[in-house]
Amino acid sequence: xxxxxxxxxxxxxxxxxYAGHSTASESNKLYRSNLAKGQTxxxxxxxxxxQTGYDCDHILSRGEVGKVGVPVSHLGDMRALFDGxxxxxxNTSMTINATAVWLMALYIAAAEEQGxxxxxxxxxxxxxxxxxxxxRGSYVFPPTQSLRLTQDLILFTTKExxxxxxxxxxxxxxxxxxxxxxxxxxxxxxxxVAILDGVKAAGMPEEDFAxxxxxxxxxxxxxxxFVTELCKMRAFAELWEEITRERYGxxxxxxxxxxxxxxxxSLGLTEQQPENNVYRILIEMLAVVLSKNARARxxxxxxxxxxxxxxxxxxxxxxxxxxxxxxxxxxxxxYGDIFDGNPEIARKVAELKAEAMAELKKIEELGGAAAAVExxxxxxxxxEANTARLESIEAGEQxxxxxxxxxxxxxxxxxxxxxxxxxxxxxxxxEQISRxxxxxxxxxxxxxxxxxxxxARAAKEGRNMVxxxxxxxKAGVTTGEWGNVLRGVFGEYRAPTGVSSTARQVGGALDAxxxxxxxxxxxxxxxxxxxxxxxxxxxxxxxAEQIAVRARDAxxxxxxxxxxxxxxxxxxxxxxxxxxxxxxxxxxxxxxxxAHEVIKLMKQEGVEAPLVVGGIIPPADEKLLREAGxxxxxxxxxxxxxxxxxxxxxxxxxxAV
Length: 657
Hints:
Largest sheet: 5 strands, parallel
Number of strands: 15
Strand order of the largest sheet: 1-10-9-8-7
Number of helices: 25
Structural class: alpha/beta
Distance between the termini: 85 Å
């Protein structure tokens, strides 16, 4: 006879959707809609000006406002973002790093306006600045000063917001930058160690320090190598338990638990045959939910069409339903860990732990995570690993269905039509600037100035920056003003690019490309010179770095200064260096605005080099760019870097005729 009694089920992980775009009010509508569909936590995406401490009317913000997230310029925007959403009842994840102290200050100020006490606030600020220098690029200040801000938020929340996770050690973007599983383990754990060592050195009592350890969470990535990724999560859990017990002497087992949220891999999503991405996302999710002893506490999934552009509400809903079906329709949550005792799993976990510990030892010998960032060690390793990954795809050694194998097939009805992705209207930026100006005019100017001066004093005197930031938020200070104060005290920083000046590839398929570059260079009478530029605030430099590496390997003279240049700076560099071609890498959706600005300035300065643009660029925008005079447009479907290099040589040759 069947046992009809209902088995005990574990509570599901938290369902999140990473979202935010256009304006605070539009994002608020999206959040409320997603919550109504069964989402159980908010995950806020902020736009690039907000992430890097600029107001929307700054020159570097041009074209970036509301594109990759929601603009939050002041307390009024934070109010609008949570209109009708009770902050005291919400678990809110904020993907914010360099300006984490400021956004948390705005969040607390908005919560207190709703009558929500600080002690009730639940959620996470990412607040992981180390990975910004390595992969995502949304840093502002030098490492030492940035780590001080990270520590300030940890110390503040421990006392004031004990339910809030003040730091989410983020290895997600490390994998997006090419990290191997053992590198992802090592670099994330090295970051956590650097932060905890700093907090402990501040003289915190042992009992309070154990609570800090218990509030540190992680945000990880899961790729397509399913067994390896599952073992990576088990290795993470075991290594964290060992570090917290042995290095920090945390006695309470609960405070030693590895707590993590996950967004599965976006790097592997393909523009070709994008419907295949649904299966990829599902398989990647399995790696972080199947093993109970290393199960994610929160999961957010990309949409199937993110390689094409900004997903629509339906696309996000589809990914949310994937989680809900796994949690509620299967029997997964009725069982213990189904991998315990498996010899293959145990062997792979041990292998990953050994590799990660060896890399951790190397980082410690260099002086820790901050030192390894400043000398470019970790960044160089990531660029090297990403280069190897791309080369294996180009060579067909790593199969990607629809890209380098099984490329034929029927056209996808899902990816046709004019409304296959969401497009942020161009008027959003002008309207946000207008609201910002109105906010500045309406506030109490004396109160705002007094708050700004107090911020500066706190920064100079080494005081905790959170409480002065909350006071500034309530006084109407803006994101850009907060950023300017700290830039004035701490200075700004440009991280190493990780791009070596020496060629990596020798022989093979690149020989033919080198021959073409050499032929064109001889025709020019000098080495063909290629400027790789990252205009605006887009810090995702992985693609630009790989283009720069391959261009050097191919024989080009390459100019690459890293992220965050104005169009004027790039045009000036091209004129000064005599560049034969300018390449813009833009993944933030601001490609049309920034390319038009570069073209205008090139004409004004008499720079006649051809311009090429790469990024996540919809077909309609590609048409606009070509009509404006862009010589070539490259998107994720152009994975063959040697083909791009040959193309660039021919573009330079044609322009020289």
